Amino acid sequence: MFRNFKIIYRRYAGLYFCICVDVNDNNLAYLEAIHNFVEVLNEYFHNVCELDLVFNFYKVTVVDEMFLAGEIRETSQTKVLKQLLMLQSLE
């Protein structure tokens, strides 16, 4: 626990994904959100690795599509990927 927050994290193949949430928030919901986020990254980057995130950090707008003001905004992977591909086509 950190002040009035707790840190929820999950490890995927050497990458750690962390979320700092309110102490009253549901751990399982955010673990599922992390899992969903990683699945979207895998689909978008075709098997994501650390270098994808380091060299394409500006493309990780998937965070904006899935979370808003620290809350889960969208859980549909197809909707998020559709938005990301549309943004990519504008580049």
Largest sheet: 2 strands, antiparallel
In angstroms, what separates the terminal alpha carbons? 41 Å
Task: From the alpha carbons, calculate the radius of gyration and give it in angstroms.
Answer: 14 Å
Fraction of helical residues: 40-55%
Order of helices and strands: EEHHHEEH
Q: Could you tell me the number of beta strands?
A: 4
Output the strand order for the largest sheet.
1-2
Which consecutive residue ranges, at least 5 long each, have pLDDT under 50? none
GO biological process, one term: intracellular protein transport
Subcellular location: Endomembrane system
Family: Belongs to the adaptor complexes small subunit family.
Organism: Bos mutus grunniens
What features would you highlight for this structure?
alpha+beta, two-stranded antiparallel sheet, two-stranded antiparallel ribbon, globular, 91 residues, 4 strands, single chain
Task: Describe the model.
This protein is about 50% helix and about 20% strand. It is α+β, with helices and mostly antiparallel strands. The strands form two sheets. It has a two-stranded antiparallel sheet with strand order 1-2. It is globular.
Task: Reconstruct the topology from this structure.
Layout: E1 5-12, E2 15-22, H1 27-45, H2 50-55, H3 62-66, E3 67-68, E4 71-72, H4 77-90
Antiparallel strand pairs: 1-2, 3-4
Helix pairs in contact: 1-4
